[in-house]
Amino acid sequence: MMNLRKFDLNLLVIFRAIMTRGSIAGAADEVGLSPSAVSHALARLRIMLNDQLFHRTADGVEPTERAKEISQEVERGLGFISSAISLQHQFVPSEANRVFTMQITDYVSGFILPRLAERLQKDAPSVSVDILPFSISTDSVWDRVDVQIRLTPGRLQPEQVRSQRLVADDIVVLMRPDHPDALKPMTADLYAALPHVKLSQSATGTTVIDDVLAARGLERHMAMTVSSWFDIPDIVANSDLIAIAPRRLLQLDPRLKHLHSAPLPLEEVVFSFDLCWDLRTEREPGQQWLRKLISELFQEIA
Q1: Does 265 have pLDDT greater than 90?
Q2: In the predicted model, is pLDDT for residue 116 greater than 90?
Q3: Ranges for the HTH lysR-type domain (predicted)?
Q4: Residue 254: helix, strand or coil by DSSP?
Q5: How many CA atoms lie within 13 A of 238 on its CB side?
Q6: DSSP per position, 142-160
Q7: Taking the mean position of all CA atoms in its chain, how far away is CA 276?
Q8: How far is C-alpha 173 from the geometric centre of its chain's CA atoms?
Q9: How many CB atoms lie within 10 A of CB 297?
Q10: Fewer C-beta neighbours within 10 Å, C or N terminus of the chain?
């Protein structure tokens, strides 16, 4: 076990800056030091970690395999330290001036965002929310996103992700009432054969339906892919295309009341809407407040 009293933790901040910027000059700009000071810090790190860590290239520096191995642990450790320090600062919603960044699956954004806006206006008027698509790189998502509200049909892979179940729901297949196949039993083969309109992965954050069908040797015919749930009910009502939706939406979106619905014939698929966040920021006061607020809003909806 390394004696941390002999280790300058500021060196890890410089290491992270070099990894992020990919150059000594860029890292120096980020941490507010001269390029010479950053180079000296890197030399100390190389001795302490017994590795070159970075190789010079025409475009800057390239991390070694050892640097790549420790990068995630360094990032996680610095996150814990930052979170621990921030605990001394109380988060007062009515006084806070802050931007929270979120990813929200399109199925629930239509009914959660208006309620969230109403609560923010009432309780935290200077707090803003920035919504990002699910198409951003998963490698950097927790450096940019405070929380996710996502479909979670399976386990989350990253060890640093924590989650809370907001609501579980069944999935239904939607079609217009006079669809040629409306009276047929909905089977997996029929479901896969019918032309679909679906939400893009950037709106849902999951490909579980296609993965389950592929395991059965089936593949959907994607006649149309849209980026917003708002477009789907009218498309289904005026065509032979089918779609899927959480059953709860049948009560929350009045446009669905006139559509025919049938249970999704893929029993291994159970959709839950989960609130997800980074373990490193779990105890940060602002994060705790936001997660509690979102949980309360879903309880009201349920």
Answers
A1: yes
A2: yes
A3: 7-64
A4: helix
A5: 6
A6: HHH-SEEEEE-SS----TT
A7: 7
A8: 25
A9: 19
A10: N
Same domain, 22 and 81: yes
Measure the CA–CA gap between 68 and 22, rounded to whole angstroms. Answer: 12
Give the domain extent around 22: 4-86
Instruction: Note the pLDDT of residue 209.
Output: 85
- Tell me the residue ranges of DSSP E strands in the chain: 54-57, 60-63, 98-104, 127-131, 147-151, 161-169, 171-175, 195-199, 221-226, 243-246, 260-263, 271-278
Residue 119 inside a domain? The answer is: yes
Contact 93, 283 (CB under 8 A): no
Q: Which residues contact 291 (CB under 8 A, 6 or more apart)?
A: 147, 164, 275, 277
- Mean pLDDT value across the chain: 85
Distance between CA atoms of residues 195 and 201, nearest Å: 18
pTM given for the model: 0.63
pLDDT digits 0-9 by tens, 37-71: 999 999 998 988 888 999 988 888 999 999 888 88
Residues 182 and 264 in one domain: yes
* Token reading at 175: 């079609």
Question: Cα(26)–Cα(13) distance, rounded to whole angstroms?
Answer: 13
Residue 195: strand pairing partners = 221
Sequential DSSP letters for 167-220: EEE-EEEEE-TT-TTTTS---HHHHHHSEEEEE-HHHHS--HHHHHHHHTT---
- Residues 106 and 126 reside in one and the same domain: yes
Tell which wins on pLDDT, 138 or 48: 48
DSSP class of residue 282 equals T
Report the pLDDT value the prediction gives residue 273, as an integer from 0 to 100: 86
Angle between helices 10-21 and 35-49 (to 10 degrees): 110
